[in-house]
């Protein structure tokens, strides 16, 4: 250790810096190799502090250590003498991973031998100042001097930055003279112009029309996913990605890949068809399809159908339906099973190359860093080929043999299984196969076969990235780049297939599309618009960090969309009969109600108005209390849209003393004193069923044992569903179709449920009109 510290201090590092460097094993090893290489060229005392600084910077930033000796030589031979040149050199070797390096191109790219004279610097700076002279004289020292520096550095690429700055400062001083008191005053910030309210609304509508949901920071999902927003590699430049493994065949394979794709971005959404998609999948769909769409690429919907025991037709159909419901059209619908023969042939090739073997141990027995290797790991290649053929022919029992890959995954899993035996007919291939590939084997190879450029997956798959690259390279096939992003989690819910099945079996929910769940089918049934879900994904953002979000943020996105798209209707959930005594018994008129009161040009509908109407029980109180503005015996109230004000004449009660009817008189609202409130009402209404939903779970994290010790099934909210069987809704909803959405004025947003019949409509409350403060 003392020798290494002495070696590091010999190039100018302080003793403290040298000891800190030793704590980083990778950096320490790289720096040691760089210094040894430099001393071979310059001798033990020939590496000065300037060279030492560049060697340290290079060792700490270089990803491909096979270039370390080459770059060390360039530094000690004084070809690279500035940080600017070093940055260019690191970028060049990253962009040219294959040997040999073209020395002429390298030196040209790094400015080797380029000398910028003081005269050139003076002329270059003078040219920049001349360009901005008029504005400089006007703004003086309030001018953005960084602009001058940026343009001067751009024109004098390889010049010393300090020298350029000194020249800029000197020429500015010569032009403007010393700073005055006015120059020293802070520049006032420009006033932000107030935008007219209707202009804001117009912009909001324009965003909705273009389908690009805005985030809180004003960036649409497409803007976040477009171009440089995510710093992803460009097609064909896979090798520039950190961690990507370059082999002697990489560049040839990338060339063929580019010939096939034409440089087009290709992504894929690869769900397993063994369950229903949930809110977390909505982010994955938006990320994969959205990234392709934002960059003029294509996205495949690929079913990972490699486990015939759990796959059903309803899941295949349901997944495609949800992708299309969210507004995306797959370039093609593919299946892992499309490639079963090719995957099998590649497995045979993997055995021939010595990278796989047939094993007779159970999967879990090889898990863990200290697990002993399989006793069959070193069996002869020919023997494994014969046994794998026997597996294919069905000559082993299930669990008796597997094909394993010779590698250790990042999570310590040793020799992951590539193929296992399952005597279950496959949904698409029937009894043709009795061996099926695993995810670890199938995923990267299907990506390769489809020439995917960006394999986007959630963060938990980061541990499988090295095995992804290993398998493609072991078989010498095109290797895409795996990028990970943070999955989306919501509080007050569970989304795992296993737990939802338990909820269904326990009778807590009716099925996968129960509106209290957060599966996409459930959210659609509840009335959440696809646009709102996409907007929510945009608001959460395409972060790589894990995100846990409150449901009220999603509900806020729903309100934003429904406020502009759900036509108004009137509904009374807890009816109280009201008879208008000064209207004839057979009186009937039509009242015109705007579909969108804030914008009456968007249409209207009519509802009947007779001498009998119904209002909400809560809109009447026998005793006037402070702050109560609706109907009482002493206080009249207005009827929305009707043009009438009603006053109580008589309160009728049943034998238990409950108010069952009001007799009132009405007068025209234009002649009456303006009432304190206007309430909604219905007349000759439809009798409908209304379902009101609350959170399914009582605690934020129902799966967390520290929060819910007895398990998630013990945390069910007993009030999560309230059914009103005889709600009254105005006749404007009579022709509604399943999933049509309405705002029931003063009540909430509602959607027509598939349980509706010709005789009785059923409405689900999607969200309340305003957020419940208790939910924040």
Automatic annotation (TrEMBL):
<dbReference type="InterPro" id="IPR042558">
    <property type="entry name" value="Gln-tRNA-synth_Ib_RNA-bd_N_1"/>
</dbReference>
<dbReference type="GO" id="GO:0004819">
    <property type="term" value="F:glutamine-tRNA ligase activity"/>
</dbReference>
<dbReference type="InterPro" id="IPR020059">
    <property type="entry name" value="Glu/Gln-tRNA-synth_Ib_codon-bd"/>
</dbReference>
<dbReference type="InterPro" id="IPR049437">
    <property type="entry name" value="tRNA-synt_1c_C2"/>
</dbReference>
<comment type="function">
    <text>Glutamine--tRNA ligase. Plays a critical role in brain development.</text>
</comment>
<protein>
    <recommendedName>
        <fullName>Glutamine--tRNA ligase</fullName>
        <ecNumber>6.1.1.18</ecNumber>
    </recommendedName>
</protein>
<feature type="domain" description="Glutamyl/glutaminyl-tRNA synthetase class Ib anti-codon binding">
    <location>
        <begin position="566"/>
        <end position="665"/>
    </location>
</feature>
<feature type="domain" description="Glutaminyl-tRNA synthetase class Ib non-specific RNA-binding">
    <location>
        <begin position="164"/>
        <end position="255"/>
    </location>
</feature>
<dbReference type="InterPro" id="IPR050132">
    <property type="entry name" value="Gln/Glu-tRNA_Ligase"/>
</dbReference>
<keyword id="KW-0648">Protein biosynthesis</keyword>
<comment type="similarity">
    <text>Belongs to the class-I aminoacyl-tRNA synthetase family.</text>
</comment>
<feature type="domain" description="Glutamyl/glutaminyl-tRNA synthetase class Ib catalytic">
    <location>
        <begin position="264"/>
        <end position="563"/>
    </location>
</feature>
<dbReference type="GO" id="GO:0006425">
    <property type="term" value="P:glutaminyl-tRNA aminoacylation"/>
</dbReference>
<dbReference type="InterPro" id="IPR001412">
    <property type="entry name" value="aa-tRNA-synth_I_CS"/>
</dbReference>
<keyword id="KW-0067">ATP-binding</keyword>
<dbReference type="InterPro" id="IPR042559">
    <property type="entry name" value="Gln-tRNA-synth_Ib_RNA-bd_N_2"/>
</dbReference>
<keyword id="KW-0436">Ligase</keyword>
<dbReference type="InterPro" id="IPR020058">
    <property type="entry name" value="Glu/Gln-tRNA-synth_Ib_cat-dom"/>
</dbReference>
<dbReference type="GO" id="GO:0017101">
    <property type="term" value="C:aminoacyl-tRNA synthetase multienzyme complex"/>
</dbReference>
<dbReference type="InterPro" id="IPR007639">
    <property type="entry name" value="Gln-tRNA-synth_Ib_RNA-bd_N"/>
</dbReference>
<keyword id="KW-0963">Cytoplasm</keyword>
<dbReference type="Pfam" id="PF04557">
    <property type="entry name" value="tRNA_synt_1c_R2"/>
</dbReference>
<dbReference type="Pfam" id="PF20974">
    <property type="entry name" value="tRNA-synt_1c_C2"/>
</dbReference>
<dbReference type="Pfam" id="PF00749">
    <property type="entry name" value="tRNA-synt_1c"/>
</dbReference>
<dbReference type="Pfam" id="PF03950">
    <property type="entry name" value="tRNA-synt_1c_C"/>
</dbReference>
<dbReference type="InterPro" id="IPR004514">
    <property type="entry name" value="Gln-tRNA-synth"/>
</dbReference>
<keyword id="KW-0007">Acetylation</keyword>
<dbReference type="Pfam" id="PF04558">
    <property type="entry name" value="tRNA_synt_1c_R1"/>
</dbReference>
<feature type="domain" description="Glutaminyl-tRNA synthetase class Ib non-specific RNA-binding">
    <location>
        <begin position="3"/>
        <end position="161"/>
    </location>
</feature>
<feature type="domain" description="tRNA synthetases class I (E and Q) anti-codon binding">
    <location>
        <begin position="678"/>
        <end position="753"/>
    </location>
</feature>
<dbReference type="GO" id="GO:0005524">
    <property type="term" value="F:ATP binding"/>
</dbReference>
<comment type="subunit">
    <text>Monomer. Part of a multisubunit complex that groups tRNA ligases for Arg (RARS1), Asp (DARS1), Gln (QARS1), Ile (IARS1), Leu (LARS1), Lys (KARS1), Met (MARS1) the bifunctional ligase for Glu and Pro (EPRS1) and the auxiliary subunits AIMP1/p43, AIMP2/p38 and EEF1E1/p18. Interacts with RARS1. Part of a complex composed of RARS1, QARS1 and AIMP1.</text>
</comment>
<dbReference type="InterPro" id="IPR007638">
    <property type="entry name" value="Gln-tRNA-synth_Ib_RNA-bd_2"/>
</dbReference>
<dbReference type="InterPro" id="IPR000924">
    <property type="entry name" value="Glu/Gln-tRNA-synth"/>
</dbReference>
<dbReference type="InterPro" id="IPR011035">
    <property type="entry name" value="Ribosomal_bL25/Gln-tRNA_synth"/>
</dbReference>
<keyword id="KW-0597">Phosphoprotein</keyword>
<dbReference type="InterPro" id="IPR014729">
    <property type="entry name" value="Rossmann-like_a/b/a_fold"/>
</dbReference>
<keyword id="KW-0547">Nucleotide-binding</keyword>
<dbReference type="GO" id="GO:0005829">
    <property type="term" value="C:cytosol"/>
</dbReference>
<keyword id="KW-0030">Aminoacyl-tRNA synthetase</keyword>
<dbReference type="InterPro" id="IPR020056">
    <property type="entry name" value="Rbsml_bL25/Gln-tRNA_synth_N"/>
</dbReference>
